Amino acid sequence: xxxxxxxxxxxxxxxxxxxxxxxxxxxxxxxxxxxxxxxxxxxxxxxxxxxxxxxxxxxxxxxxxxxxxxxxxxxxxxxxxxxxxxxxxxxxxxxxxxxxxxxxxxxxxxxxxxxxxxxxxxxxxxxxxxxxxxxxxxxxxxxxxxxxxxxxxxxxxxxxxxxxxxxxxxxxxxxxxxxxxxxxxxxxxxxxxxxxxxxxxxxxxxxxxxxxxxxxxxxxxxxxxxxxxxxxxxxxxxxxxxxxxxxxxxxxxxxxxxxxxxxxxxxxxxxxxxxxxxxxxxxxxxxxxxxxxxxxxxxxxxxxxxxxxxxxxxxxxxxxxxxxxxxxxxxxxxxxxxxxxxxxxxxxxxxxxxxxxxxxxxxxxxxxxxxx
Length: 372
Hints:
The protein is α+β, with helices and mostly antiparallel strands. The protein has helices at 8-14, 20-24, 60-78, 113-118, 125-146, 178-188, 193-202, 246-262, 276-279, 284-302, 306-331, 340-354, 356-362; strands spanning 28-32, 37-44, 47-55, 92-96, 101-105, 111-112, 208-210, 219-222, 232-235, 242-244.
């Protein structure tokens, strides 16, 4: 069955997720929000709403990634090793394997972390701290299972494609635009890039089930339970989850802060790197307290000593650089050239890859001893 606004109500009634009387009484409504998947937001009277997802096509990759996401929800529900994962996700409701339909609880009052950070003059530290605590707690509890990941056939145990960009045809990840080709040519002009990205790839570990695509759009801030209550977070879109390196998720968080800074710079061609801080609408200095709150909460929850924290922080900033290049690729997916903002992403990524210790100090703002 292919879901549509017309067929969805019959499907949900058949699955027992919506009562017939809810439909008859007019308490049922659904809104399609499709993108690369068929997505539906469903309201069903006094009961919590539903978010229903089905692949938009029947391509093997689309089916595989939805199965991966469903497996994450099932592990969180059924496997004690992944109990901490449930704190990161919306509540699981249903998975229908024959029709590849995943249903979770709707978060009606949630906003993306990007929208949340964009409100007001400050960058909220409490949200960043909560993200660090949740991610650290999950990585701590789920790490032992990564050693036995081979039996989880839903996960390919791969490496992010950007770490293999110098060794594969970029077309393996999808259509290549003129902007993408210009980006590849730009990378080829940096002799240090190939060895640097190879070194990052060679350091890849498999020590956790990672989200794989942590970005602000996939982090939802949920309305507090009451006045004075701390903010809550939920992470969605686990389609690229895999057994891999926990530092990839941490580096993705760092990358989200860095790209928020770089993409807030006006697209003024010819602006030198020395003026990036002056031009940015969201300066990196304003985000550093939130970065510190995130990292301290993450490292503290894992119980890392100073040496282990410094080593993990250095690896995470290197993954952040790779993720910046991936973000640049995504931004040029529909362009004819490389926009100025993307040039900023690339320049900072190359600087981080070649001087990671300087990046930890000057970009993330960690002075000596602060990383522990």
